Amino acid sequence: MDEKALTAIQLYLADEVLDEFSSEKTGSSLWQRLQDHYLKKSLANRLILKQCLFLLRMHEGTSIKSYIVEFSSIINDLDKIEVKIDDEDQALLLLCSLPSSEKRFREAIIYGGKSTVKVNEVKEHLLNKDKTDTQLMGQSQSDDFGQVHFSREKNGNEGSSTGNLRHKSLKCNYCHKMGHIRADCWLRKKKQPDANVTELIGEDEEQCDILSVTNKSVGNKDRWIIDSGCSQHISFNLKMFS
Known about the structure:
By secondary structure, this protein is mainly α. The protein is built from eleven helices and three strands; from the N terminus they run αααααααααααβββ. Helix content is 58%, strand content 8%. Strands 1-2-3 form a three-stranded antiparallel beta sheet, with no helix packed on it. Strand 2 and strand 3 form a beta hairpin.
């Protein structure tokens, strides 16, 4: 049992400390040496521990629970060398060591109308606030995920209606009516035009917003020019589809 205790203590020691106390062969003797060395009621130890307490600061993103443990550990070490820190002073030191993001919480405790404050009350309020913030953050992330999921489903289901609205101000080059383009013309689909023409127009339509077809005579031949609003024009001989 003592051998296991010795091993456990050694695992928590830094290399330089372990080298200094390597001669101890039992857990009890090692523990006693550590207490005599670091918890000696000397001026140096009092100064070191007080300095650790007064300069202790909580950084943004640090866990509230782990910080309270660290703060309480220093208070306990001071108590072991008979240095007593008043309960109210402990509470004020803890509040002052909080990061700037906790400014409102600190002011609410200090200016809340109480004539005194206890360290256990501050710890309890901090832990409750941390628990509430964690729950609200988890709920917010869940709501954001739900909104994104709903938005994707909505966009997927309304893709066709969005396309129709986009062509609301365009004129069909087949039936010359407003509100749709040639590819969506029901009259053209009813007559079932050549599949090659449909495929060509469909490809060009997906790439551009405006599609117009004009007939130009080149020499003795009729040529159709598809103007898609892009930098390129597609022209083809009408006879190739006859």
